[in-house]
Amino acid sequence: MAGGDEDNIPAASGSPDASLTQDDSFTATSHAGLTYPWGDAAPGTGETIRIANGISWARIPMPGSLGHINSWLLDDHDGLAVVDTGICLTMCSDAWKALYAGALKDRRITRVIGTHLHPDHIGLAGWIAKKQDVKLWMTRGEMLTARAIVADSSDTAPDEVLSQSRAAGWDEAEIEAQRGRGWNMFQRMIFTLPRSYVRIADGETLDMGSHRWRVVTGSGHSPEHACLLNEQEGVLVSGDQVLPRISSNVSVNITEPDADPLGEWLASIDKLLSTVPADVVTCPAHGEPFRGLHVRLMALRDEHRMRLYNLAEAAARAPMRAVDSFPLLFNRPIGEHNRGLATGEALAHLKRLEVEGRVKRETRDGVWWYHGVA
User: Fold this and answer.
1) pTM of the predicted model, to two decimals?
2) Which of 145, 203, 247, 357 is deepest in the core (most CB within 10 A)?
3) pLDDT of 287-339, one tens digit each?
4) How many Å apart are CA 202 and CA 111, to the nearest integer?
């Protein structure tokens, strides 16, 4: 809720993190080979679990299918740094108040670190920073993009959004329904961001007293997502860049309609494989801490590659629109509630095929048709 105050936090909302490509058939194989040192245990209200020297785990409840976000508390000189916060909702702020009265009682908060711009990660960053009189630390790409989205004051879907939906193959009734729906829920899920922040960058090492955390950035799910690696303790805070049981959303969106987010996502997987050891304990934003990082990364890469292959084969048989690719990408019904997300993910896959020279896009009457390339 941009512009909100500390006593006016709304009561309900949702999250953009999970991909619609995730389904039961993928889940059964994608996290095979992973181990969970803490099983399915999770910290309760007002509690934390110690993961390793320098890091503790708190869980913030959220509405929707994800049900929670993990907040990671890093030992920092004479206090604790908070990594990711939850949405600007009463249930999330109440969880923080319980932590302040419980496991964090008499502990000083030194800084807030946002892995990336999505509201479940920075929704309460401004609130905590204001309450604790500390700074927000983020990458420049995430902070500036968040500010640009928050600044969009449109009450209804802009013309650019409607044009992209038409190009993807939506019919006129679907477009009219989109026109009438509320726009920019992002604003409502984020407490006012501080006017200034501390920039973190890829390769930088954050000095936290007896611990050092190296910033490793990725892209595709968001512009400049920050993971944090403690090489001495063998721990990676992965945010949404690597999740154990679900796949992160990778979509083309209206802020950068010609981008290739899936290409960036696949390149980020290769980067993590080459720069982060396989045996780290990975601390994700959703789900439980796990071992088997490289197994998980290769499964995510191979799953997307399989879907790209299926799309290319279909386009070689007959031209298709983005909406025609839904049955090949998603093993679930696509309706009004998830059509926008499905479209973004479909466009990301088709754009990757276009960049790789495996399909060619043709525009007819404002609609994009994708043809296979011999």
Assistant:
1) 0.92
2) 247
3) 999 999 999 999 999 999 999 999 999 999 999 999 999 999 998 889 988 99
4) 19
